[in-house]
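Quiz preparation item.
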């Protein structure tokens, strides 16, 4: 009896350790797909989004107020991104097509987390490859840092080992891979994880808009 009890307790302890360990791992390692949604004390609204000032592809300064009255689909990335950003923008483009006339009420924004390389002109040319409705926005390092903080977006420059020590090393940007849906008033409504099917995104957006 005692042996069986000890064996049972040992199995339970091991199970707890595995579950806790997995939870810690995902909390630390999955920053690209899990947003931090903080609740306000009274309103209960998620503290995601807020005022920003950036520059569009034509060099025009825009702020969050310029988009009032539109639902926003917001994704953060960079033009030198090898896979995640092109995939996300392609999914957003297909989502717009699936929305039909409802897409007129939605403004997709692609906000750069790489202001050192992503000029307004480059951003405009880049997003035009995916869909004419997508607007690319960039800004100074401080402006980008402010809007990323408002949206609880993680990003960090990463230099490949083989580039370390070079005078002008090539680098990539580690960053969150989440698409945010914001209300016409600028409030957070929901987010879509990377890889969400365009039809699924379109259905969710249509439910909110209609």
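Solution:
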């Amino acid at each position: 009896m005692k042996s069986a009890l000890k064996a049972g307790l040992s199995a339970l302890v091991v199970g707890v350790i595995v579950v806790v360990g997995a939870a810690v791992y995902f909390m630390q390692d999955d920053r690209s797909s899990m947003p931090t949604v903080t609740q306000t004390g009274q309103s209960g609204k998620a503290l995601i989004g807020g005022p920003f000032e950036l520059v569009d592809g034509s060099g025009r300064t825009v702020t969050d107020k310029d988009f009032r009255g539109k639902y926003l689909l917001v994704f953060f990335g960079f033009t030198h991104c090898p896979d995640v950003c092109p995939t996300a923008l392609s999914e957003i483009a297909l989502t717009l097509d699936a929305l039909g006339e409802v897409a007129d009420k939605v403004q997709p924004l692609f906000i750069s987390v790489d202001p050192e390389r992503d000029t307004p002109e480059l951003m405009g040319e880049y997003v035009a490859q995916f869909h004419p409705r997508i607007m690319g926005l960039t800004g100074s390092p401080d402006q980008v840092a402010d809007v990323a903080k408002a949206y609880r977006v993680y990003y960090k420059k990463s230099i490949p080992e083989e580039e370390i020590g070079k005078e002008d090393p090539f680098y990539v940007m580690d960053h969150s891979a989440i698409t945010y849906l914001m209300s016409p008033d600028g409030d957070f409504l929901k987010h879509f994880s990377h890889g969400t099917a365009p039809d699924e995104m379109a259905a969710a957006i249509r439910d909110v808009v209609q």
